[in-house]
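subagent[fold] <- orchestrator: predict structure for attached chain, return tokens only, no commentary.
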Amino acid sequence: MTSMEPTGPRLLTVNAGRPEAVAYTDAPGGTTGIDKRPVDGPVRISDPGPKGTGGSGVAGDTVCDLRHHGGSDQAVYAFAREELDGWERELGRPLANGAFGENLTTRGVDVSGALIGERWRIGPDLVLEVTSGRIPCRTFAGHVDEPRWVKRFTRAAAPGAYLRVIEPGTVRAGDAIGIVHRPDHGVTVEREFLAATTRRDLLPGLLAAGEALHPKSLRAAREYVAKYAADS
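subagent[fold] -> orchestrator:
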């Protein structure tokens, strides 16, 4: 009798990275934890604390540049296996789970199409809330080592999602992912990402997501609206 592969949205792997000295980062100390690898067994995920002092929400994972990464609103980074598969075809090389520096590699979840403020339950206890897309940086480009990577990743507009921890918990590979709350505003991760990168005209529409937005995106949207109101 053969075992059947689990169906439905699920967590393929939990990935963590250790500090590594590299030439392609401008992080203090010249180290990065972007090279994340799947972790065996259960992993605790909890709120790491405020931006600038809190790192990763994933136990055993390292955030080296606290200026731009980590903290409560970027506690966890998720990326869809389906998107990695698409990049494998485009780049012509294999991409293991964790290859884009994601903490959670998912299957069956439209990560970039998730709504800001959408909540996921993973396993029995963990509840996460979507806050924003991932903006590509120099370290990411150096890690992937592909020509014009920042522009290519930006053009694809499928950035994966940062999430905050609403209820801490322990997860492991194979856990089911359930969407337990979906807001009705229609502001997706993709839309937030476009507004933050190439479509600044979309910023006013982000305000519909309210306080669920990453504070940086919320501030940018408010400043954009204030500026154009003053100019009109």
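orchestrator: received. Logging for downstream: The radius of gyration is 17 Å. The chain has a mean pLDDT of 95.
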